[in-house]
Amino acid sequence: MPELPEVETVRRGLVPALEGRRFAHVTLRRPDLRFPFPKGFARRLTGRRVSRLERRAKYILVCLDATATAPEEVLIMHLGMSGRFTIHGPDGPMAPGHFHHGMPGTERHDHVVFDMEDGTRIVYADHRRFGFMDLVPEASLDASRHFAGMGPEPLGNAFSGPVLAERLAGRRTPIKAALLDQRTVAGLGNIYVCEALFRAGLSPRRMAATVATPLRSTRLAAAIRCVLEEAIVAGGSTLRDYAHTDGALGYFQHSFAVYDREGNACSKPGCGGTVNRIVQSGRSTFFCSSCQR
């Protein structure tokens, strides 16, 4: 599943094609993705101008200007497991590129087509159909079913060591599970939690409450922010279905210290340990038991 850096990379790729533009026509080639499309979805988007694109956790937010008959609304888009956008500009479609692992590439997986007023066409494909799209009033965005109770953005000003400590206090669950809980921190996924815990020197099996100290929480918050920022600069990690909007691959997977590195020597100088793999809550966890305590 695309994680926060991948979603942010896709958002940035969509900005030139969407921001400040109007939807001229919207085509739905099926009635649903993971969930049914909102009632009147295509009609409600047609003619609307995009004021800006934002990201919240792993969601892309397309903010729409108000009209004489509709308030400011937000098109919420989630990529699910395999969702991807392709931008076809006035000069022709951008090359789809090569994925790290293959995926079906036929047009039968193209489920949503956005035709913009300048002639740009944006196609959303999703062969597993775990992604979804929704429309909600901007005024009630934070209270919507998608974001109510969600934790702070790990790259936002509201996230810090003390904030993390407060959210971990008293939690009798492994720290990895606590970080994957979107109520603790928004947008963290399996890959970058493994990498952040490694950088912070914390075992994924450690109880979350024991990280709620000034030293450990500050160290972990800094590691989370750092690994996400570096991954965004690298364009994310191309794993299975993910690629940029222009088809290019992300490259952060080449910087993984522990994720998918089972059996490799620990990369921390002087450690001498080996990267191990365990399963937590049905997901693979990669870590070094020698230097992560």
Description:
Helices cover 22% and strands 22% of the residues. The strands form 3 sheets. The chain has a 5-stranded antiparallel beta sheet with strand order 1-7-8-5-6. The chain has a 4-stranded antiparallel beta sheet with strand order 2-3-4-9. It folds into 2 domains: 4-140, MutM-like, N-terminal (N-terminal domain of MutM-like DNA repair proteins); 161-252, Helicase, Ruva Protein, domain 3, CATH 1.10.8. The radius of gyration is 20 Å and the shape is elongated. The relative contact order is 0.16. It contains 6 helices and 11 strands.
- Domains counted in the coordinates: how many? 2
What separation lies between the terminal Cα atoms? 28 Å
Summarize model confidence as the mean pLDDT: 89
Class by alpha and beta content: alpha+beta
Give the overall form: elongated
Question: Helix amount, in percent?
Answer: 10-25%
- CATH homologous superfamily caption of the largest domain: MutM-like, N-terminal
* Record field, number of beta strands: 11
Task: Kindly summarize this structure in a few lines.
The chain has 293 residues and is an alpha+beta fold.
